[in-house]
Amino acid sequence: MSKKRVLSGIQPTSDSFHLGNYLGAVKQWVELQEGHDAFYCIVDLHALTVETDPALLRKRTLMSAAQLLALGISPEKSTLFVQSQVPQHNQLGWIMECMTGFGEASRMTQFKDKSSKSGADAARVGLFTYPMLMAADILLYQSHLVPVGEDQRQHIELTRDIAGRFNTRYGQTFQIPEGFILKQGAKIYDIQDPTSKMSKSSGSGSGLIDILDAPEVNLKKFKSAVTDAGREVKFDTIEKPGISNLLTIHSALSGKSISDLEYEFDGKGYGDFKASVAEVVVEYFRPIRAHALELLEDEAHLLAILHQGSEKARSVAQATLESTYKNLGVVL
Ligand code: TYM
């Protein structure tokens, strides 16, 4: 039996990925390379939906590639590529827009949240059509599994709806994908405000943990992480959202179960626990950060990996685009 296809994407919108990106998504990307046919995409076109600086976009695309490699994505096992280097994404994106209702797109909560910040009139049209481009990213590769964080669940549902509708109307064309979303860790919270998700676009910055930040910076952030009333280290998302978030982070990186951690810190208080989380995070990312910075020194090598990935992605994407056009009645 042929291997199941996996696809996911990440935006190059920051110099560093944050802990939420890693725990909610990229950690699963690395695991799913084994035994699957994995395609991972740096979605630079999605990054254009907000104001961008050309020099920064270029730098961050390369930094994203370096981080993915340092985090364990292997170009031998996975196809790592840049979205804009595969024009079929835009071509299928248009078809996806033509298959989506305006009302359906208007219900996307990420668009509502992001556009409400400066008013819907100021939002780019690309921010509105963003989920349809994401549907194209997924469907072009006939993907079975899409490893993402909780915040992408609604976009995957939309993708499934569009794919099902297209198949019913025009004949079997797309694999219906499934989200691969963790039960624990699919939503990592800001460590200063554990009721909001950790995010590069919101929050104060002091609650955001960037994996490329210097160890001293992250040690300090964890030591001042917000805790909850009481002094017991116990997983309880309602009464103790701060401690629960830190337990989730510790457990995902140390490999210890939450109940083992509760037992280990029984009677020890928040200070000791926070120091332990800080150490686990910093030591986990120390070699990864060094490796990413080293990879960034050889731009030609990074570009070669991305070009090779994009070439492979184009051939898979073209086959899906052709069958889509054929089923639609486009003259080929
Ligand atoms: P992006 O670039 O915002 O985030 C990349 C991945 O990180 C996850 N994530 C989180 N997980 C847990 N806790 C958090 N606080 C947290 N913050 C972010 C996201 O869920 C995501 O999986 N629309 C996508 C990019 C995309 C895509 C695709 C994904 C474009 N095309 C096709 C999958 C398939 C996004 O904005 O991710």
Concise overview:
With 332 residues, this protein is mainly alpha-helical. It is 55% helix and 8% strand.
Describe how the helices and strands are arranged.
Blueprint: E1 4-10, H1 19-32, E2 36-42, H2 44-47, H3 54-70, E3 78-82, H4 88-99, H5 102-106, H6 109-118, H7 125-139, E4 145-147, H8 153-170, E5 178-180, H9 215-223, H10 241-254, H11 258-264, H12 269-295, H13 299-328
Parallel strand pairs: 1-2, 2-3, 4-5
Tryptophanyl-5'AMP (TYM) binds next to strand 1, helix 1 and helix 7.
Account of the protein in words:
Strand 4 (145-147), helix 8 (153-170) and strand 5 form a beta-alpha-beta unit. Helix 3 (54-70) crosses helix 12, helix 4 (88-99) packs across helix 7 (125-139) and helix 7 (125-139) crosses helix 8 (153-170). The protein has helices at residues 19-32, 44-47, 54-70, 88-99, 102-106, 109-118, 125-139, 153-170, 215-223, 241-254, 258-264, 269-295, 299-328; strands spanning 4-10, 36-42, 78-82, 145-147, 178-180. The protein is globular. The protein has 332 residues and is mainly alpha-helical. It is built from 13 helices and 5 strands. It is 55% helix and 8% strand. Strands 1-2-3 form a 3-stranded parallel beta sheet. The structure holds tryptophanyl-5'AMP. Residues 7-11, 20-21, 24-25, 43, 46, 134, 137-138, 146, 148-149, 151-152, 186-188, 197-199 line the site of tryptophanyl-5'AMP.
